[in-house]
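FW: tagging you since you asked about this chain on Friday. Here's the raw sequence from the shared folder, copied in full. Didn't touch anything.
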Amino acid sequence: MYRWMGIPEAAMRPPLSDTVLCEENQRFAGSGGVSQDNWRCGFVAAFYDTSSGHAEVSRFRNGRPAPIHLLDGIPEEWVVARDPSGRVIAVKESIIAGFIFQGRFYTREQTVKAMGQGIGRSTSNIT
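HL: got it, structure written out here
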């Protein structure tokens, strides 16, 4: 089980969807709050259920870990609706996107702050 870093801003978010994920990626681009900015520092794309306290690494539909946030691999109990082809189109309102770093879940906002404080640099593969 991953430890929760506290998520006060989660109550003000719209329910997670592909559209919301795209909007979040645009909002956090270049700040450390998207996978392409932080994966080399050890942050792993993940989802968190604020109602149960359970975090899950983002996965492809086949269960393999995904390098970005994908709804299709989230736990079945978090899925509210699928389209006719089986793609996840709605999840529980309590699900948020963020990252896991050293056993802790960070929201995108917390990841930006952590990256600004140098957290993760020691695990960086950047040369």
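FW: Strands lie at 3-4, 44-49, 54-57, 79-82, 88-91, 95-101, 104-107.
HL: agreed, and Residues 123-127 have pLDDT under 50 and may be disordered.
FW: great, closing this out.
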